[in-house]
């Protein structure tokens, strides 16, 4: 089912109205699945954080953010990758329609949270990319997991894939500002500026390591 016509509603004839309504309902149902998948994983993360708090241990989670890609963003990504513009194509080819970002105090906490999630038998790890051990050339650091979670509906169970990004407060600080500078600037980023941004990422990474060393020295991290 094609959903590109949502951006050309004024050009539709009366004959197309029923098809538009049906398409809109199908899109709404699919997006509901991704929203449910985010809620399922966020609930698990909240429970893990509450467990740490009640036990008197520092929580490995500082904050949790989530988002659903917009239809326009979905269509743009499908086009860039050469995939058909349809709901089926979207669900089969894109793993980041629904996304969760977990911000952790320390690097060690990232792997602690990931390990705790992987011990839950209703989550399936589809893909793992460790940009902490292997940073991107621009300096980006984060742990990316594609998780598949079952969504139990009234008459069926549907698997949904959610992208989980885990990063420290420092990593998130750099990534957020780098994105704003790189993609919201009216000019093309010159090579020297890219080198400067990479240098900032390296300084922040070194600071992350040092803060973790101090935390272990003070027995905040065991």
Largest sheet: 5 strands, mixed
Q: How large is the radius of gyration?
A: 20 Å
Order of strands across the main sheet: 1-2-5-4-3
User: What structural class do you assign from the helix and strand content?
Assistant: alpha+beta
Shape annotation: flat
| Distance linking N and C termini | 52 Å
How many helical elements?
A: 6
Number of strands: 5
Give the overall pLDDT as a whole number: 90
Poorly predicted regions are: none
Oligomer status: single chain
H and E order: HEHHEHEEEHH
Report the helical percentage. Answer: 40-55%
Strand content: 15-25%
Describe the structure.
It is a single chain. This protein is α+β, with helices and mostly antiparallel strands. The chain has helices spanning 17-54, 71-80, 87-93, 107-118, 169-183, 191-217; strands at 63-68, 98-104, 124-130, 143-152, 157-168. It has a five-stranded mixed sheet. Helix 5 (169-183) packs antiparallel against helix 6 (191-217). The termini are far apart. 20% of the residues are buried. The model has no long low-confidence stretch (mean pLDDT 90).
């Amino acid at each position: 089912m094609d959903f590109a016509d949502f951006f050309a509603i004024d050009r539709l004839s009366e004959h197309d109205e029923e098809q538009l309504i049906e398409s809109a309902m199908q899109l709404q149902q699919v997006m509901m699945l991704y929203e449910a998948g985010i809620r399922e994983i966020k609930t698990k993360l909240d429970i893990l954080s509450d467990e740490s708090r009640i036990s008197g241990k520092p929580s490995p989670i500082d904050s949790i953010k989530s988002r659903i890609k917009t239809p326009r963003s979905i269509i743009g990504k499908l086009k860039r990758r050469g995939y058909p513009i349809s709901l089926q194509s979207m669900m089969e080819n894109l793993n980041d329609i629904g996304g969760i970002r977990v911000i952790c105090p320390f690097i060690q906490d990232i792997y602690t949270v990931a390990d705790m999630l992987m011990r839950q038998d209703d989550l399936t790890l589809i893909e793992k990319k460790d940009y902490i051990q292997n940073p991107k050339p621009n300096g980006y650091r984060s742990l990316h997991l594609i998780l598949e979670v079952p969504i139990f509906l009234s008459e069926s169970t549907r698997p949904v894939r959610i992208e989980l990004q885990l990063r420290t407060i420092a990593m998130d600080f750099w990534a957020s500002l780098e994105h704003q500078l790189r993609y919201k600037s009216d000019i093309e980023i010159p090579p020297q500026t890219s080198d400067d941004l990479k240098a900032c990422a390296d300084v922040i990474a070194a600071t992350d390591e040092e803060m973790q060393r101090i935390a272990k020295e003070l027995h905040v991290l065991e």
